[in-house]
Amino acid sequence: MPGQGGAGGTRLWWRWPAASVLVLAGVQAVRTAVVEGLSDSRPALAHAVWSSHPKPTLALALGEIGTAAREGQSPPPQALEAIRRVGLSEPLAAEPLLVAGTQALAAGNRKEAERLLEAALRRDPRSTAAHFLLADLLIRQQRLAEALGHVGALGRRLGAATIGFAGALADYLRQPGALAKVAPVLGNDPALRQQVLERLANDPASTPLLVALARPDDADRAWLVRATDVRLGAGNVEGARRLLARAGVSGGGTALSSWAPGAGGPLTWRFITSSAGVAEAVAGGPVRLVYYGREDTALADHVLLLPAGSYRLRSSFAGKVPAGTFEWRLACLGTGKPATVLPIGGNDNDSALSVAPDCAAQKLSLWARMGDFPQTVSTELSRVSLVGAGTAS
C-alpha cells in the first residue's frame, strides 16, 4: 500500500499549484472588484487595498488638485507627478489629459485646453469632468449651441452639476431658434429646468418662453408663483392667464381657495411669517394669527382674477379681536390704484366690495395695524368667503 500512498501523495502534490492559481485568481478578482467599487467614493481605502492600481491613484491625485484649486493654490507637485506616472503606465487614461487641459485653462490658453479636453472625452466619453470643463469653456466663449451637448450629458449623469449654467441658458433662450435646442436638455434635467425657469420668471418679456416650457405638473412650483406675480404686477393679465392654463392651474382665480399647510400655487392663500407677526394654517382647521403690534404688516394674501362686479367678503374670527387691529385690503394689480380697505370690527364681518372693469387682477390681503400702544394679539381666522352680491353664503 505504500506505493498507493505514495502515488496518492504524488497526485495531491501536483494538484497544489493548480489550487494555488485558483485561490490567487479569486483574491485578485476580489481585490479588483473592491478597488473598482471604491475608487470614486473612497479612493484612499481603494489605494490602501491596491496601491499600484491607477484608478485610486488618479482619484486621490485629482482630489488633491481640486482641494488646492478651491483654496486658490497651484496643483501639488506630488499629485501632478502621480498623474504623469499613470499617463506613462496607462497611455489610454483620460485623467492626464484632463489635468493638462485644466492647466491650459489656468494659463489662459483656451484653444489648447479645448483640444486636450476633447481628447480626454474621446478616451472616456462618460467623463463628467471633461463634459463640465468643456461646457464651462464654451459658455464663457458664448458658444452656447456647442455647449448644449455637454450640458445634456451632465444632466443625465449628475444633474446638480449643471445648475451653474442656468443663467447662461436663460439668456441664450432669448435668441431666435434657441428654444428648440434648449428644451430637450431641460426636459432631461429637472434641477437645471427649475433654475432656468426661475430666472425667466423675473423677466416680464419672457412670457412666451415660459408658456412654451411650462407643463401641467408645474401648478404648485415656486417659479410659477413668481412668474404670475411679475406679469400681473406689470399689467400683463392675459399673459398670466395663458401661463396658468399651460401649467395646469385650476380654478381660474374666481374664488378663494381653501387653505392647507404647505399648499402652494399662484392662486392660493399665502401665509406670512416675519418679525412683525405669524400666520399659520392648521390642517382642517383655522388660521392661527399672532401679531406683535410693533409695525403694520400683511399676515396673509390671495391673488384673484375676479370679473368686474359686486361681491361680499365674509370672515369669522375666534377669540378676542380688538377693534382696528385687523383689516382686509383689496388691491388692483398692475394699475397703481390705492387698495380698497375693509375694516374688521369684531368676530363676524360682512363687507361689500366692487371690482371695476379695469381691475382684471386683484390681491386680497389680511393686514394688522399698530395701535397707540404695542400689544400682542393672538386670534384665529376660522372662515373667510368671497361671493357675488346677493349670494346667501
UniProtKB/TrEMBL annotation:
This is Tetratricopeptide repeat protein. InterPro entries: TPR-like_helical_dom_sf (IPR011990). It holds the Pfam family TPR_16.
